[in-house]
Amino acid sequence: MNLRQHLPLLRWSVLRTGIGIRNFNRTGQVGDGRETAAADYVEANARRGDIDSVLATIDEYAYAKSFLVNIGDEKGRLLDAAVRRADPRLALELGTYCGYGALRIARAAPSARVISVELSSANAEVARRIWAHAGVAERITCVVGTIGDGGRTLDLLRDEYDFASGTVDFLFIDHDKNAYLADLLSIIGRGWLRRGAVVVADNVGFPGSPKYRAYMREQQGKAWQTVEHRTHMEYQKLVPDLVVESQYLG
Length: 250
Description:
Layout: H1 3-6, H2 12-19, H3 21-27, H4 34-45, H5 51-64, H6 72-86, E1 90-94, H7 100-108, E2 113-118, H8 121-134, E3 140-144, H9 152-161, E4 168-173, H10 180-190, E5 193-201, H11 204-208, H12 210-218, E6 224-232, E7 240-248
Helix pairs in contact: 4-5, 4-8, 5-7, 6-7
């Protein structure tokens, strides 16, 4: 295990993330250009058309260059396994960031159509560059918007991307932690989740989404069957985290 994984808080880029958290919550970016630099790094170092190489290069960048707030390699394996269990035709992601999560979904479900909703148009551009380099741009679409905008983005998904009753097989939630539960309930309210659909939520332990966790616990065996995976915050082994995987019982 390398020093960066044992002592992540010694890294300036991690400290800079904390300093820039207000900017991140407002704009979706830390504010030091690391997201665009990640796309530059991928284009310069990853093999074109090779998803494995692109994902490994993003992980390398996050460990060796600048910390990134995507799900990362350790928790990413939990995401991979959940996607394979769901075997989705249509997957929805909330929170694109640099496109890493959607890329893992696309790799684990080669026949799936992946739609990712992202607040930041700058992040959307970074993700599209990375997806194009990985050779999967035709399978992943980034929609700039937010579920909590009064229905505009939900209507767009319905009207332009054919979201309808029972069409969503897999949902990955990794955006504003305070919006996890409200956005999930909005999607349920549209009737889009098919019975048996799988929902994965990152960072439920750290920085935490307590309302979402309480809801899943209260609904255990009723509307949901949930497993909490104990793991670590992305790109380190010091701070614990939870990935919550839930199957929709309808």
